[in-house]
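Contributing: when you submit paired examples, paste them exactly as shown. First protein:
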Amino acid sequence: MSKAPYFGKMKLLWCTSCNVPILGDRCNRCNGSLVRVPISPPGDVRPAFKCDIKLIKKVVDFQFGEDLGNHVIPENKIILLNKTSYIDRMDEIIFDGKIMGYIRFSPPDMKWEFVPKLPIARLLWKFHCKKWIKIDNRAAQAVISGKNLLVPGILDCDKEIIEGDHVVIVNEQEEVVAVGTAKMKGEDMKKRTRGLAVKIREAEPPSQDEVLPGGQTWRDVINANMKFLEEQENKALTFIKNVVKSVNKPVTVAFSGGKDSLATLMLVLKALGSKIKVLFIDTGIEFPETVKYTLRLLQLLGLEDHLLIKHVNNGVFWHVVKNFGPPGRDYRICCKTNKLGPTTQLIREYFPNGCLSFIGQRKYESEKRSKEPKIWRNPWVPGQIGASPIHDWNALQIWLYIFKAHLPYNPLYEAGFFRIGCWVCPALKLAEIENIKKTHPSLWEKWEKELEKWRKTYNLPKEWVTYGFWRWRKLSKSQEELAKTLGLAQVIHKLKDVPGKLKCTLIYEGEICSVNATESLIKATLNTYIDLDRTSNFLSILGKIKISKKLGFIYLRSKDFTCKIFQTGRFLVRARDNKKFSKKIIEKVFKTIVRAIYCVGCGICASKCPNNAISIVNGRAVVNQSLCTHCGKCLGECPVLL
């Protein structure tokens, strides 16, 4: 299990009089007493939607008995969820000012499970739950003092308990004293005379929980936090105005269809009015609901004429996968080709001198983003200065801002999605994938067919697809542990090379004497024939080109070297320097050929060119040799070289 990142002081208070969460220092409804809720890092609490509550109830019913969910999970109270550390998705369930338990998706079992804490365990026991164990008072004292439960202390138990079940433990007076995980069957607990029965997760002396009043709405939460929300909004508005003054470029808002970009859009509109442009990239792998929602929202706001949209051909992603394999969390080529590249093209088309983009980026989203400044330049999107007015906002603050303004939000949030993005994103958790299978079966079937091709190519087990191991080129530590748990450690491995991808093999290196000096000579070969026209066009980035189709080769002359590339894939480099330098030239030539062959037309290289020498024609980058000055600024940022 990975450790949850810590992004600074976490603060969640609860007004016990109003029974609502408080983000600031006081309740603006009653100014009553507050208690601190000890949430786990990173502390990005959010509302539980109806679909979340329905899921929790369903899982509680399955584990602890029919209709128990309705008894212990209230419909008339404010419920929050807090994402915390786990191998997949896990949320703390918060209401009545307490962390009541956890809902988490277990990858080994591929199912959801409810993990109770003591406050909700007492409710479960009150309504005659299953999975209970009754122990003598001596064992109860041992458990409360920090010991695990041994078989000799058990008086009675639910015989249907199986190993791994989450259980509720009561003393002789039938008072709840602990919760834990069963380490043997209920039948064995009754039969055996020794052994570890339950690993205790939480224990404390018997107590009665205060039942807080129900009937709260999100409007009550907004009213209780009104001053805090207004203060944070004013800070964001001031930030936006100050950035606009200091940057002095055309203002845009990058809209993705998610809650964060929605809040950002509304803040910018409030600060600046409608004299802005809205950038939306339809990556070709967006959920259909996201595209429809975006167009509908901008029409509702009267901003349809302010929308600058880039539709990426949906064949781009599949072309990338065909050539480079499935994207991974450690190999996010699709983000470059389907989002950042098209964003660069859009900005270059409408803002040749660059623009300022307000982006709904928050520090709670990842450890990397937590370390980034509120104003930045993205090396993959030249010409864009990014700024985030909501960098320090947590998810609850975002949602309260949306609820307060009665803003329509993406309907996918009501369908069990807590994060909006591309439906084939390798950042998906298994819980999200299972949800997509239910809500968008045809989309996921298409993706699984593609994954099956790669699985068979690499002779991988079916679990490579089932358990989402495709989401990494090299498995993370937690995924390696999962592979071990499933008995797959020896057959799940990283994808080292994509079959058929261009390779370069060194076949000779030495020195030759020229008229004025000794030159290094290196010969190499590619594992394929090359297209002379396409390759020569791209090699012109490095120097002057001559092509002989009759003899089947390209001659490249640069100020530092010469190179002859044959149609058969063999090439040689001559340079007036040492062998180390010549090898670097070989690498540069090879990478340029790779770019020529596998170009997906993302446009990043075009945006890097200061002379407008590169354009996208029929989905591929093409070099205008008469404009190219061989400056090399387009060489570095190419996603096919990741």
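Second protein:
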Amino acid sequence: MEMNNELDQEASRPIAADDREAVGLRPIIAGYLRQRTVILVSAIISLVAAIIYLLVYPKTYEVMARIQIQDDASMMASGGIGLGDAAGVMKTFGLGGLSSGSGVSIDDEISTLRSNSLMRKMVTRLGLYAEYRRPLSFIKLYGEEPVHVICDSTTLDALDDKVEFSLTATDRDEVTIKAKADGEKQTFHFDGFPAEVKLHGKTFRFERVKQRAGASNGNVKLDITVYPPRWVAEKAADDFLIEDYSKSANIIELSCTDYERRRAKDMLNVLIDYYNQEAYDYKKSQSDVSLVFLNERIAHVMDELEKVERNIERYKAANKITDVEYDIQYYAEYMRDLKGRMIEAETQANMIALMDAFVKNPANRYKLVPSLLTSGAAETEGSAIFLYNQALLEREKAIRNSNEQNPMVASLTTQVDRLRETVFQSINNAQQSMQLTRRSLEKQERELLDRMGSIPVQERVYVDYKRQQEILQGVYLILLQKREEIGLALGQKTDRAKIVDTAFVKAKPVAPRKVFALAGFIVLTLVLSIGWIVCRDQYRLLRKEMKRTADD
């Protein structure tokens, strides 16, 4: 009542124009500060709560790793053809390769690292789908659990809700397991480990972890919860912080927080290992397609080369030709340059024909155009085949991260089909251009041969055979070299993600934070004290009203 009278007196004073905002707070704050006992008790309670927070909350650390993404977007062996006789193959057609110029999309790689499929593999590998706790403890055990629960892939795939187990084992390995699944509780008894529990077609196998030599098993009480791996993967994707180091670097930082430092380090390291393995598997699958194509073409070229060599042998024997080159030295000087250009033009025509057969084959509709058909010296980012292969890579990555019914995949498929038509047109234009080039060279050759009418017919036929032989030899060497490049690249097994920093623990823990304890102390003190004062005044006011009603 005294405080209310003081508030009334304070409110009756004249209000200055520049003090209107503060006049309502002064009496409230002054009245609050006079409640020293309430404030002291609230502060003591808040201090105890802050101390409990600092003592009970486990120390949580931040674990970080850094990786550098290698520029290997083609997922194939890099490098051009590199042959002296074929260095200019397809130079004039702008048919770029996949081996460079594609760059690295850090956003795509971050999405892959955060994908549920990759996280799920990591969770399954480390057994994180199972949580182990001591009774009445909220700390999850890792690496120190006395019993492991093992689930096969069929069980993990079929699991659509969590399953809870309460396990009790004596030193004689008498095991009692209480299970709760789908609201149904069951109890199982076993004479020893391993103990196998079957629930609704799902199998859970419990095995005791091997103790150190001379150590006894002892009694075990453990609460185990098994979650669907995709749930744990979703939570891990949310808990992980995966971001680029800078916009100008191909470095990605991965970090997570956990009170169990070894678990956090294992999660980061295993995630990086699976990322590299998945990239290698994809690279190998694409290389296998190219190797099949290469082997088929090499066998075909070898058959053609053998036929030409036999024709040369028979022709030389029939016409008794030995050293034509020495007999027609004067002809060779004039024909050398023209011959080189015709060989290059024929080689280009063969390579374009190989490309045309590969692209028009319905079985290769959504396959990358093999890099052997393109020259590293001729690749341009704006070419039709470059854009087509880039679209195929984006479609393949989208399918791996989702499925073919995804609207984004359907959109990418439509884009690939449109680009495929431009590839057909580009190859057709190249073939027409090559035909014009070949006709021009053949015309020059005929004019030169007409001026050399004294040359015997058999010598001209022999030159034609030799030209066919050299063309086939050039194609054979190109295919053989490319096959060896792919084989060497697969044998080296270069990691997609080069590890810059393996998972390491930062020195200072991120929790519990003293600043959080201080903020909680201040807020809780204010809430408790103000709440107590308000409730007390309301109670007194209620009693006064009840007394007045009773007197009336």
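If you have annotations for the second protein, write them as plain sentences, like these:
The chain is about 55% helix and 15% strand.
The mean pLDDT is 77.
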